[in-house]
Amino acid sequence: MFEFLAQNFAVAGGVLAAIPVLLHMLRRTPAVRMPFSLVRFLSPTLPKTTRRSRIENWPLMLLRILAVSLIALAFSRPFQRIAVTQDSAAPAGRRIAILLDSSASMRRDGIAESLLLQFREQTAALQPADILSVSSFAQTTRTLLTADEWRQTDPASRTALLQRVEQQWQPDWTATHLDSAMLEAAEEVSRERLGESSDAASVIVITDFQEGSRLDALRSSAWPDGVRLELRPVKPEQSGNRGLSLAEDQKSGRVRVRVTASGDAPSGACTLQPFDSQGKPVGNPIPLDIAPGQRRTAAMPEATENQPQIAGVELLGDPHPFDNVVDLPLQQQKTRRILHAGSTDANDEESMRYYLQRVFDGQEAEPLELLDLVTADGMPIPPPADSKLVLLTDTIPASLAPTLTQIADQGGIILAAIKSAEMASSISSLLPAGLQWTEAEVKDYAIMTATNSESQLLAPFADARFSDFSSIRFWHYRKIEGLPQDNSVQVLARFDSGSPAILEIRTPGGGRIFLLTSGWNPDDSQLALSSRFPPLLLQVVRIAFPAEAASQLHDAGTTLNITELTQEKQWRLQRPDGTTAADQSSQDATILLNEPGRWILTEETPDGPRASSLLVTVAASESRTEPLPEGQLQALGMAPDVAVVRTNDAEKQTTDNNAEMDAQELESQQKYWRYLLLAGMACLLLESVLAAATERKQAAAI
Length: 702
Description:
This protein is α/β, with parallel strands linked by helices. The protein contains 18 helices and 32 strands. Helix 2 runs antiparallel to helix 3 (58-75). The longest helix has 30 residues, at 672-701. It is elongated and about 150 Å long. The two termini are 51 Å apart.
């Protein structure tokens, strides 16, 4: 059966085909004019016409009708839909990677069902020659089905593999690192492309594509050539979300909670309900009115004799409860006192103290107080008895050195940024004997090229993405010679000249001294202006206060080193449900906080058992559940023909477009219009010949 690409030409051809019939049936004038001499002097009159009652030349009319019809049909571009065998239509095979979002926002009602339904639709469209791999992603990516498993399984038995994937996929409590998951999958399929067509390598991402998804890496990383990205957003049964997170007011010392409403959240009031350690409501509910896209904070009431201490708070009136509960500190967190010896002017941009103050002031969840050990006129101040951390940024008075030695011998931590050779001489009593300090000769600038990521100080930079310090320029640094050849001194980082940049010295009393052979003041380096400076300082704080560090707030998915939790030999970490997460017999050196709630760390100390809490919450980014705009990927630099967002409406439009493209492709292959146009021209030629013959015949008959 034939179809037409331009049906209007076919209709027009049917209308035009009637014109020859009308012309043959309309009025006509006498065919022959006969002159008479007798009527030459009469006035001329118009000849009378007569109506045809019959068609005189049927072949001529039929040829004209046929010519008009054939030409009109040629312009309508007819084609015939034919069945194509699978072997000839299917490509050699495609390499497809499907990514399933398993972040905390996927715990909303109805969204998991939508994801699995979309997954079944995508796998149902696979051809036997296609190669598939499936992974789930949140903060990290987990492989659910490898390409090798798919290849080695008979096509008739692959349904069992897909069912296994559906059973293994489960949303967790971590944040959405969408960028790293897409880049990893794209690199994988790029290496295993099965053909040269535009869809030979594809990454299909099934996600809620919410505002809190991390996409920054797409801006700075190149997308592999020849890999197509197809994003298929899924939606929950009900849009909108309000999330709860923990905040702390340093000025008042009161615990506060923050409510965040997504941009598509409904307007109206919600309620905060505090509860005790048994989960029972405590006190009166706290009403809170919040508009879409806003954030509001509320202070929790303090414990009194008539009211037990509040262990947590729950947000009521929200359709998605996955981020509506936070646990609160059972005891007010102690402020950590950090001692400092150096400049006392916190507003002097040329001093190192200026940058220390700004890093510590920005830690709302970890109250940090910076105390000066030396007054503005150079007088030392006796430090508190329980001091654990001292920062040295300038030459110290000789009377302060014994106090610092005592802190180090009692297991304390000292961080010294050597500003000059004179400063190094002032703290020589803290350091191994025989060290020699000189000012290094730097031609333009020096860079830090070799770091020991296995050390505890540089552990935050163990990831390859953060371990590169080469972008930080050092204008001046001090060379050190005479280092002892034993385990008491370890070089953690070096400059490009090979000279030590960061050293760790262990004292006999269990303390540690970290030496930076260059300062972070602008005259010495750009270290204080880099993004690695705050994590470096905070890591020193965690080393000095391991017990307090364990009681700070963490996002679900955080990985902690055991040495960050405790230094005791006997310890036990308990999950929020009461089961044991790890103890001293654990083989792993790290602990993954993979669910929200209150984790309890119990330690056996010389003074008896000590318990502390690790408060784990859902990442605040997961509460921003409003969908990102479809053009977000293009805004990050991805080409429109490479990254495509497929919504339900877009899917229908794409199907219609594909059907139209298939029809055009069939018509371009068959090209029946050529034959119709030739036949129409032949009819016109034959009509001309026949008309001329008829006219000659009529003329001869006169």
